[in-house]
TrEMBL record:
Membrane topology designation: Multi-pass membrane protein
Biological-process GO terms, alphabetical: cellular response to hormone stimulus
Annotated source species: Lingula anatina
Hydrolase listed as a keyword: no
Gene name per UniProt: LOC106153965
Name of this chain's protein: Gonadotropin-releasing hormone II receptor isoform X2
Length: 409
């Protein structure tokens, strides 16, 4: 069963990837070689390995090409944006850690998960697109597979933890005395589950040699699953763990939250209209004002978390739709343009860039830190320019002024 999605030899499918090796394997146009070939025997391998110059040149789709360059540029842009945003979020929250906000604690761990994608997964993808084949060996192949999945698992599980924390805060406010302890437990479970769910990736992915160009190696899943049914089951497990299960839990949690807020808002309006004018009116107004501020803060926090979850759905749904299409009907799915397939995966990865932006929309401290970073960067540019000007003045560069004198200006 062909489940690969992607351009050339680089599959954007996180979970399984066939493109690269096999005995009598018919390869697909997107990732394979379009024909059934057999793995050479030992003597043939020695001849091929020792006389690579005599072997026909690799096809274009097995080498670095324009599609590879486009992918590298796209990943580099995502890496820059995600690095700036997530580092600013992390620094902002770290500096304000004395506030002991559970939401801030969750957002910090979400930023850490996004930074794992930013500084581990994306650089590896850039390197892989640069070399096209896998040159780092079997151990690195397995480590890559673990790292590619870990950040996405962790992000999903932390989003689930955030939604559950908001659920308990609004639906069961009397249980908030143990809220900090519960939040730490949920975060610990999120990290442990992400590690456990990512371990199979390091077992399934391994190094394989191309059956026709034996020196050409790739990090793939081929030869691991005993049947197509086993592979489909594994893909569905990952789909459920990373996307479907979190989506169901998050949707249910926020549905209950919205229902509860609607009910409380209605009750509050009824109570307000029934309050009589008394001599203690000023005191009651102050009390209601204080409660109103707390409620507004809760609503703002709820809006922020809902936006984070909404963008998670927007970014990941197209990728899993096309993935499911490949899993169940690969023949028709192969007709989808490879550029669209790459765009779907890049959209999923871009979720790591969007989370900091959403956080910044609802947090004044984040915007303040961003302004500080911008001022620091401007100051560095100014200092660099000033230092360069001083250096020119000290060393004396008459030829810069000479044209003015010669032209009579």
């Amino acid at each position: 069963m062909d489940t690969e999605i992607g351009d050339n030899i680089i599959s954007v499918d996180l979970w399984t990837k066939h493109n690269g090796a096999g005995s009598n394997l018919s390869y697909t146009d997107g990732d394979g070689f379009g024909q059934s070939v057999s793995i050479p025997n030992d003597s043939q391998r020695n001849i091929i390995h020792g006389n690579q110059s005599e072997v026909a040149q690799l096809p274009l789709y097995l080498m670095f090409n324009s599609d590879s360059l486009i992918s590298i540029v796209a990943y580099a842009c995502l890496m820059f944006l995600a690095a700036v945003g997530n580092l600013t979020v992390f620094i902002t929250l770290f500096r304000n850690r004395h506030r002991r906000s559970r939401v801030n604690m969750f957002i910090m761990h979400l930023a850490i998960a996004d930074m794992e994608v930013t500084f581990v997964m994306i650089p590896i993808e850039i390197s892989w697109h640069s070399t096209v084949q896998w040159l780092a060996g079997d151990a690195s192949c397995r480590l890559l597979a673990f790292c590619r999945a870990f950040g996405f698992y962790l992000s999903s599980f932390i989003l689930v933890a955030i939604s559950l924390d908001r659920y308990f805060a609004i639906i069961h406010p009397l249980s908030m005395q143990d809220a900090d302890k519960r939040a730490k437990i949920m975060l610990g479970i999120s990290w442990c589950l992400a590690m456990v769910c990512s371990i199979p990736q390091s077992v399934i992915f391994h190094l394989e040699h191309h059956p026709e160009y034996f020196w050409y190696t790739q990090c793939v899943t081929y030869h691991f699953f005993p049947s197509d049914a086993h592979e489909l089951a594994y893909n569905l497990f990952n789909f459920t763990a990373v996307y479907a299960m979190p989506l169901v839990v998050i949707t249910m949690s926020y549905s209950f939250i919205i229902w509860e807020i609607t009910k409380k808002t209605k009750q509050s309006r009824e109570e307000t209209t029934s309050i009589n004018e008394t001599t203690s009116r000023g005191t009651s107004c102050l009390r209601r004002s204080g409660v109103g501020n707390i409620e507004r803060a809760r609503i703002r926090t709820l809006k922020m978390t809902v936006m984070i979850v909404l963008f998670f759905v927007i970014c990941w749904t197209p990728y899993y739709v096309i993935s499911a299409w490949f899993w169940f009907d690969s023949e028709s799915a192969k007709k989808v343009d490879s550029k669209i397939q790459r765009a779907m995966f890049l959209l999923a990865v871009s979720n790591s860039c969007i989370n900091p932006v959403v956080y910044g929309m609802f947090t004044t401290t984040f915007r303040r830190e961003m302004r500080k970073c911008g001022c620091w960067f401007k100051n560095q540019l100014y200092r660099t320019g000033t230092s360069s000007s001083k250096a020119l003045a000290i060393h004396g560069m008459p030829h810069f002024h000479q044209p003015r004198r010669l032209s009579g200006l």
